Amino acid sequence: MDSNIRIIEKENGKRLGVAGGNYRIVISGEETDNTYAVIEMTVPPGGGPPPHSHPNTHETFYVLEGEVEFKTEKGKIIVSKGGFVEIPFGGAIHCFKNTSDSFAKLLCTVMPAGLEKIFEAVGQPVSEGEFLPVPEMTEERKSLLQHLDEIHGQKTFPPDYLG
């Protein structure tokens, strides 16, 4: 019997209010020798990150509920429940936005782990179903986000970068 098997119940994991969404770090890099991390993202209507890239991270998204609009430099597409998006290593610029009028839920995996640290640094602890307002973009917050991008090998672009 393999004693390394983990079962993580739905009420476990760290829940954070991030950019208006409710993100649950299901399993962090600290628990996987930094090989990967899994984040469940509940995204309200209008929610989603700005365009960004991370050349040294392979990221996947599986849409569990609802739909989101994914944008890349090649265009945009609506990805609905059961849809899957893969962002391979290399730094492709991408973002998503919930353009519907209901909540969307995505399961995001990052390999290697590390990007969940950005969510931990900018997020506030929340309960399941709790959604905090998007924080004001003060000079201090801009500086924090730029610093986090630098240390985690990410680059963030203006919200209208992908049209």
Automatic annotation (TrEMBL):
InterPro entries: Cupin_2, QDO-like, RmlC-like_jellyroll, RmlC_Cupin_sf. Coiled coil: none annotated. Gene3D superfamilies: Jelly Rolls. Pfam families: Cupin_2. Residues 40-109 form the Cupin type-2 domain. This is Cupin domain-containing protein. It comes from Chryseobacterium wanjuense.
